[in-house]
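Entry type: protein chain
Record version: 2
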Amino acid sequence: MIGTRAYIFFGLNVVRFLSIVSLILVFASSIFVMVKDIEAVNSFDAAKQSGNVTAQDLVDCDYIENSTVPNQIGGVFWAVINRLLIIFQVIILFLSEVGWPSAFFDRFFPVLGSNFGLGALGIFQGLIGAAVLSQHVDDFTLVSAFFLFVLGCMNMLLGLIFRESAKSRRSVTSWREEAKGILPTTNVGHLALNRTGSSGSSRSFTSSTLYEEKSRDLAEFGAGRSNSRAGYGFGRQGEKAAGLKGFLISKPLETVPRYSPRPTSVPSQSSRVPSPEPRFASSGTAI
């Protein structure tokens, strides 16, 4: 049975696929509109030179016929710049959705990187869709921009729900890493001890028992602990704990090397005069 994590993974990737498709459609429609605008401007200039367009027609016309170019000073320039900026933004968003190069986005454009959610992506898509829909365009461009705007709203909603974990939840590499975590793991130290004793079951049991006792003793005296908690050390606490565990610490005997000469006793020569020994005589009337 498929779990909730699988549904979230497939749902986010479906939205991701539709987002990529909408960006490709907007990219193609922008190039198509830019070509049509240039052709319309060329036709308009040819009509002015031939005299088919009067000065009154130029004043009454806000946009050049069959184009999105405004009839004003520099209108052609700004119309072309607008389309080029839209194409550039679409390419950036497309690379962000594909996830390449992720290091570039994480370093220079973190709002579209792997550590950020889908909210910023949805805002950019909504702005591009609204910019295209605000002009009079053909049906293909209209549908592409509306599709991109809807996907932008969905990404903004998913960004509010999943926040910064949205891209990690839909990542294929993260899915594989989490799938590996489901498999059981083995103890490396246990395998190292049992590698030499694989010939017999009794030897394997003995090595595993020794490993468990050693691990327990290390944990008891603090050798295998982290830095957050110290062990007993080499003082009286450590000696006391060792005695409770059955370990006896014997003091080494004081010895001298074999090649050293034996000490000889030399009579002491003192300058002091010895005190006379007391002599006692008992009295006949003593009680």
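Comment: The first helix runs from residue 4 to 50.
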